Amino acid sequence: MSEQILIVDFGSQYTQLIARRVRELNVYCEIHPFNQLPPVHGDIKGIILSGSPCSVNDEGSPRIDVRGIIGKVPILGICYGAQLIAEEYQGNVLPSQIREYGRARLEKIDQHHELLKEIQLNSQVWMSHGDTIDYLPENFDVIASTSTVRVAAYKMKSTGVYGIQFHPEVTHTLEGKTILRNFVVHICGCAQDWTPDIFIETTVNELRQKLNKGNVVLGLSGGVDSTVAAVLINEAIGERLHCIFVDNGLLRKNEFGTVLDSYKHMGLNVKGVNASDAFYDALEGISDPEGKRKAIGRTFIEVFDDEAHKISDVEWLAQGTIYPDVIESVSVKGPSATIKSHHNVGGLPGKMKLKVVEPLNTLFKDEVRKVGRTLNIDPSILNRHPFPGPGLGIRILGDITREKVRIIQDVDDIFISALKIHGLYDEVWQAGAILLPIQSVGVMGDERTYESVVALRAVTSVDGMTADWSQLPFDFLANVSSDIINKVKEVNRVVFDISSKPPATIEWE
Ligand code: XMP
Predict the structure, then answer these.
(1) Preceding omega of 502 cis (within 30 degrees of 0)
(2) What's domain 4-187's architecture?
């Protein structure tokens, strides 16, 4: 990657959002923790300092060598980042008299400054801070104020250094994008040429050089990330890429065949491996959710490793890892960076002793989709709901049997097909059905029944970290419910999950 913006993370909840916004401007950027900064090399055109949950006055608050970077490239400090620069030059940062949180308006703006060009008077901004810059050093100018915050934005004279107290990266700052554009494009001079086409061209070239000999194996899952990774590598090295698609017996109804067919149509060198028996054997008698995850993960690694050994001369393991899995949000309180607990096959690279290649590890999910669209990958794969690695294994509460898998596949298929038919599929972020380990009494015709209960789950979300239950129309739910009970004879009761995350989670296990 060439031209880029460096984002220094001081632990703000919004750091990833800053990166999203910069990339929406077609400018490449990377987030680095404050304590692991790369040297300011020639490709870095500007630096953004993020906010932080800490106060610059806290003992042990996160610090960088501010003077060491000033003058090298333009700098934009946001919230804590702005306070840190001001403090370094003997400004004064104090706890705010009133805690500033929420909407505010820029009542004074000095539009002569490049950063605030085209920003309207009274523009709405989003504040979220406990401290305020009370006194600015002499060589700093205030360039915007709100009714309560005098130093809402500043510029350090005769440098490209700016600070803003509010958050341009959140959508509540209505002209935040313009401010970031002013900084990244007009002040840093970035060319805005980082597009999916360029990404594809440079990545395919890099892959061609990197994977210049030996074979590459990749586990396809039917999801967006592994598919896009496979297509990119396929463009680079063709038949030397060997994809393996494992049927773990816990996929959606007919998914294995349908997805395998679509992969073959895409020209991928893919082998489908039906390993359902191995998974069912490994799962026998296990009811504990983590126990099931472990058994499924372990079996996957064994099956995949066996298959990979059938291919000669394998040197590389390719994975569809994406950027949010790689950036560890800084924990300003210690080294306990957040780690995804859902990493099913994290043990794969270690076990296989192969070199790892991850062509998507600089992209966010929606960027992966954009790249996928540019590569002409079928929308039915690109827009597919997320589906957990352990599949239906964690949607059957309690132990797993073939019969239970068949029941929940039928129920899930009715629900998902109905969402598609009624044009609701794309409004929902993720949906599925859960087989509960209880039976309830019902009546069908004149007969008493004692059958299973299923729960339907549909959520809206941005990234799965938080989620809300989807308010699907009642008549839609009524139809789906009666369809399920009429067609799946082992089910006589359907419930709809109306819990948000947090405090619930998306999956029930
Ligand atoms: P939760 O249930 O934690 O789920 O709210 C958030 C997202 O993660 C998916 N998920 C998993 N994905 N392996 C995966 O690959 C897992 O073990 C796993 N558990 C949950 C879930 O489907 C949702 O998209």
Answers:
(1) yes
(2) 3-Layer(aba) Sandwich (3.40)
